[in-house]
Amino acid sequence: MALGLTLLAGCGLQRHSSLFLYEVVSSEALSVVNRAELAKLWAPLLNSYSQIDPGMKLEIMMFSEERITEELRRRQARGLGPDLIVISGVMANDLYAKGLVRRVTLPPYLEQALEPEVLGRVRVPGGYSALPVARAPEVSCFNRARMPRPPETLAELLSQAAAGRHVGLSLSPLGIWWSSGSLGADEALARLLTRRPGDTTPVAEADRRAIEGWLRWLHHAAMQNRVNFFNDAQDVNEGFLAGHLDWIPCSSLSLKRLRDGLGDRLGVAPLPTGPGGPPSTASQVRVVAFGLNSSPLQRRKAMDLVLLSLNPLVQRALSLSDAEVVPVNRYAPPPVASSATLKALVRSQSYVKSDALQSLALSSSDMRRISLVIERVLTPLVVGLGSTRQATEQLIEELPPR
User: Fold this and answer.
1) Distance (Å, rounded) from C-alpha 144 to C-alpha 150?
2) 3-state DSSP call for residue 239?
3) CATH number of the domain that 362 lies in?
4) Tens digits of per-residue pLDDT, 270-294?
5) Helix, strand, coil: what percent of the chain each, to 5?
6) Which of 16, 20, 161, 297 is geometrically suited to a Cys-Cys bond with 82, CB 3.0 to 4.6 A?
7) Dist CA 161 CA 175 (whole Å)
8) Which of 317, 289, 350, 360 is nearest to 100 (CA)?
9) How many angstroms separate the Cα of 9 from the Cα of each of 54, 68, 301, 306?
10) What CA–CA distance (Å, rounded) separates 366 from 119?
């Protein structure tokens, strides 16, 4: 790391300058995270960078995922766009396709060091739409005061509900995708989602049975008095924070907010396994995209900062700062012995498959259309107004949405 800092110091970087960074988060996170908290998250990286450029400041602004496209168009048209944009890999690809961020390349040594799966999510012809810096896997969150031991299997989850614990599940794609792996239906669903428009090939009977088995479990779970289904993850998180729920699936990116609300009562564990195997855990890749309005000096500073963030020691420090993310550098193994939460994140990350929902090269608009189909098909099922057979046929007919 010291050698890397020494080399960067030879770039002739000027002091007392700023880089402008946009942190793009969900609407839910935007309402509870402030700039001071974001600055704390970036502190390990900035502390390292200050050795070569003590005067450099990072000016942070926050935007919701829903607003970022409009904001970039408006600000970049006036030459006031950001130098760096921290965002999900899916949205970085969308912004690149719209010409709102610039393509970047990586030195060969870093391409070899980074996880191929995360690089693949942002690869575009001739380079990358952004550079990955961290992974945020989905886990389960539970209230230790009411549920001392988290369920390790789907059967234990329903047993805990029968014993009086309140379970919250979301009908959003990410909110229930994990359970399809535990029931052996994730690969069948992946094949369904990646069918080409106009493909009339019949769905394999084995895939049909797998999907119906998954829906049957969801229907059975919904019939339990203390298993509650919600439209989106925000409602699930709010119910958990309010004390109405004892166990929920949750993104590691929401852990800070949940920890602020529950303190030591917050427990974190991998999602339950099932008869079909481990959960098909989703893992959001947080990436840094590069804006269009930077001066040559700002571009160089921005790239140096991001390259430093990929250094194994800095990656380790970032994972320890709030124990909410997992490194993307293969040579930065997370120190799991230092944190039970980090241990749960690493275990959950090991469940991520190459065909997981986040890895299907689906755009943000694809995800919105899929979400509408999921909600339309599964809502009647979980309120007892439809059969699993009907829901199976409807999913096969409507996925992927055109």
Assistant:
1) 8
2) helix
3) 3.40.190.10
4) 999 999 999 999 888 889 999 999 9
5) 50, 20, 35
6) 20
7) 18
8) 289
9) 11, 33, 11, 15
10) 21
